[in-house]
UniProtKB/TrEMBL annotation:
Xref: Pfam families: YabA (PF06156)
Family, as annotated: Belongs to the YabA family.
Cofactor dependence: Zn(2+)
Molecular function via GO: zinc ion binding
Gene source species: Paenibacillus rigui
Keywords, comma-separated and alphabetical: Coiled coil, Cytoplasm, DNA replication, DNA replication inhibitor, Metal-binding, Zinc
Functional description taken from the UniProt entry: Involved in control of chromosome replication initiation. Inhibits the cooperative binding of DnaA to the oriC region, thus negatively regulating initiation of chromosome replication. Inhibits the ability of DnaA-ATP to form a helix on DNA; does not disassemble preformed DnaA-DNA helices. Decreases the residence time of DnaA on the chromosome at its binding sites (oriC, replication forks and promoter-binding sites). Tethers DnaA to the replication machinery via the DNA polymerase beta sliding clamp subunit (dnaN).
Quaternary data: Homotetramer. Interacts with both DnaA and DnaN, acting as a bridge between these two proteins.
Name the record gives this protein: Replication initiation control protein YabA
Coiled-coil residues: 24-58
Predominant location: cytoplasm
Length: 118
């Protein structure tokens, strides 16, 4: 293999590494999106299960279910809701209204912490 061939080969490898690097970045973005979606869906699932349980105990009219849902979300800000948010934060998600539901990629978030300390 002469010197010129070596340089051609190195350039090819550089190009391949660039492609792999770009693909890695795309996969990382997709994984973050999937983790966030999974968390949103599991929270929604929990809330729906609660509604279903309430329905079984005491049937609610369809139009009031929307109100129950809104009340459940409003409850996030009190007692039980605070615990849920604290747990969500511990699991690595934002609970601040700036990035709510997004994965915390860089450790603690000052917005979230100030919210938790209220
Ligand atoms: Zn945050």
């Amino acid at each position: 293999m002469d010197k010129r061939d070596i340089f051609v080969r190195i350039e090819q490898m550089e190009e391949q590494m660039g492609t792999v690097y770009a693909e890695l970045g795309q996969m990382k973005t997709q994984i973050i999106e999937l983790i966030e979606e999974n968390k949103r869906l599991s929270i929604e699932n929990q809330q729906l299960r609660k509604l279903l349980k309430k329905d079984a105990e005491q049937p609610v009219a369809v139009e009031t279910q929307v109100q129950v849902m809104a009340a459940a979300q409003a409850k996030e800000l009190t007692g039980e809701g605070y615990d849920n948010l604290a747990r969500l934060y511990q699991e690595g998600f934002h609970i601040c209204n700036v990035y709510y539901g997004h994965l915390r990629m860089e450790g603690d978030c000052l917005f979230c912490l100030s919210f938790l300390n209220k």
